[in-house]
Every structure is written in structure tokens, then in C-alpha cells.
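pls ignore typos typing on phone
T4K + seq
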Amino acid sequence: MVELARGLRLPEPVYVTRPTLPSLERFRESLEQVWDSRVLTNGGAFHQRLEAALCARLGVEHLSLFCNGTIALLVALQALRVSSGEVITTPFTFPATPHVLHWNGVTPVFCDIDPVTFNLCPEQVEALITPRTLAILPVHVFGQPCDVEALARISNRHGLRLIYDAAHAFGVRAGGRSIASFGDLTMLSFHATKLFTTIEGGALVSGSAALKARIDFLKNFGIADEETVVGPGINGKLNELQSAFGLLQLEQVDVEIAARRAVSARYRARLAGLPGLRLPPLDAPGVESNCSYFPVLVDRERFGLDRDALYAALKLFDVHARKYFHPLCSQIPAYRALPSAAPDRLPVAERVARQVLCLPIYGQLRPDVVERIADILWALHERASRG
Ligand code: T4K
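k done
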């Protein structure tokens, strides 16, 4: 292995993602405008411009910016008065998803996932509905759209709220529509690890002006005017510097998505036929994905190494893949005693969490580096199969 690593090791570390930054010169110009205005936050001009620009880019009407995706999701539940009872969600997600339920006094009910998309399995959602269920909180994991039609049918039939965690799904379209336009509310994350970023940041997309107005009060302490506080809000605002950064990011987001598509296509071309490595599904008809992640499933028998061994071996070559999302959220101490968290009730999620590995993908990942990562994967397989 030492010999192999010496030959193929990358000259510098390659991480699962890297943000593509806007021009520093242009950002400096924006900063000068902020300095001139002295408006630093509380819905200033850059904030207003970014909300409008995001609506136009995403093809939605009502969007509220937030300081991060987690607070946005916390407010989404408050806005729809989901603050007791149970909400059905996925265990195969980042901990923020069940945590916002917990912080709202709601019990998460974990539901198993689809083996291909890794998203909530609609048939199993229905079986978990009880008189205490108030909402469904699905995640478009790795930017793959959930079965939005089936979930809409189920939520309508049972009078449940439907709130999407679209932290990974910026710019994704399904059935000719923005993925952010489904359900009662959709949360987006603009964290530094996302393909569109405001460093930290996020948004809620709502279906009506009235719901957006309620969200905007809630993210600003519930303040309506200098003497009126309409409800118990929180501070979820995005500031002017980050909004200005976001406007510059937005100018380059389509180039970023196209570059990620090219990385994804190169991985697919090079890794097709590599035994024991299942590649992410191709876009279903009507879906435009954003290639925000490149998750593979590692089958130990056929690849020759299990996921953990492959993850560790890649590090020797300075390739820092990530085990998103292992461990499952149902295994977090705060939730693992819940009846729905029992591993035998979540067999698909348990298997996927054991096998999944997210390979590096971002717009500026050079083609020769992608080629090298593919060479390393083939070499590791060949070495492991020789015994
Ligand atoms: N729902 C879902 C489904 C989510 O995935 C997330 C967040 C949320 C909700 C919550 O949204 P936010 O409140 O975060 O807006 C990262 C992110 O921190 C997290 O935002 C994201 N999901 C999650 C999937 O990934 P870590 O712990 O893996 O981050 P970290 O610091 O290890 O970064 C990963 C790699 O990215 C690093 O190895 C290098 C690179 N990186 C990272 C940062 C922070 C950079 O190149 N520059 C940077 O500034 O969680």
C-alpha cells in the first residue's frame, strides 16, 4: 500500500467540497457600498436584492433569507404551528433535520428510505401516520428529488403539513418545476459547503405572500413596527455583507453547476464497470439535478474493501471523502431510544449508511485530479482482489 500511495498520492489534499469564491475585487466594491451606507443588517438593500434575484433564479415567488438553513427550518415549523406531536422524517440526513423537530417540542418518527434515491419511502410514510402526526419532513438527499407527487397525495389525504429540507437541492428541477416550489414550505441551505453559498445562510420558500409575511416577522423577533411585536419570533436574519457575497455567487452558479456536471460525467465514465461500486442514479425523466454530491455505495464482497477500509485507504492518497450520512440520525443518543429508531425498522437506511461514501465534487476540481481519484479507486480494487 505504501508503494501504491507513493505512486498515486495527490500533491495536495482533496476535500469532499471546496467553495468557488467570487472575485475579491468585486466583493471589495460591494463592501465599499456597505461602508458608505452603514446599513449592516435588518433587511437592507443587498438583502432585498438577493431575495429578488433568488426568486428569479429559482423560479419561485416568495423567498425569505436566513442566517443559516437550520434556523430557517426551525422557523418553518413555527410558521406552520408544528410545535407538538410527531413528524415523520428520514434518518438518512444531517443532524439538523431531526434537531429542529426536537427544538420545537416535536417527536421525530423515523421512516425507512428508498434504496435508489436514498429519500423517504412514501409507502412506508403512510404506515407511520398516527393521530399525533402533524407533518412530514422529507429531505431531497444529495439533491435527488423526493417522490413529491406521492408525498403530496399522502399529506393531502391525511391533512398533514409537508415541509421539505432542500439543503442539498439548490437549482434542482422536477417535472418542469423548481424543486423549491413543492410542499407548504421548502428550506434551502447556503452554507460554505453548498454549491450556492452565502458563507452561512439559508432560505425558506413559501407558497403565499401571507406565509412569507409571517416568516419575515418570525425571523425578526416577531417585530411588526417600533411598538408592535406580533408573536414570539427569533433572530434569523442574513446580514448585508453575506447578502452582497450571495449576489456575486449567484452570477456564477450556473457555471458552477455545469462544471460539477462535467466532474460527475468524468467519474461516471471512469468508474463504470468498477466492480462493487454503485454510482449515483442518472437523472429520472423531467429531473435536472445539480450534482452537488457524488455518493457511491461500496459492496465489500465485490469491491474487495468495505466502505470504512476504502475511506481510510483514500486518506493515504490525500483524498478526503466523507461518510455522509453515517451514523444515521436514528443512532444519535437523543433519538436512539425512540421506537421508530430501532435498526430492524430501518433496514435500507442502515445498509446505505454502512456502504455510502461521498467522493470529492466541486466546480474547480480539475479533470486530472478526477482521473487520479478514479485511478486510485481502480488500483485499490485490483490490489484488494489479488488478496
Ligand atoms: N439539512 C441537511 C440535509 C443538511 O445537509 C444541512 C447541512 C442542514 C440541514 C443544515 O443547514 P445549515 O444550517 O448548515 O445551513 C457540512 C456543513 O457544515 C453542513 O452545512 C452540511 N449540511 C453538511 C452536509 O456538511 P461537515 O461537518 O461535514 O462540514 P466540514 O466543516 O467538515 O466541511 C466539509 C468539507 O468542506 C471540509 O473537509 C472542507 C470543505 N470546506 C468546509 C468549510 C466549512 C471548505 O472548503 N470551506 C469551508 O469553509 O458539515
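The pocket of T4K is lined by residues 15-19, 68-70, 93-94, 96-97, 139, 165, 167-168, 189, 191-193, 202, 320, 324 (CB under 6 Å). The chain has two domains: 2-18+252-385, 24-248. more later
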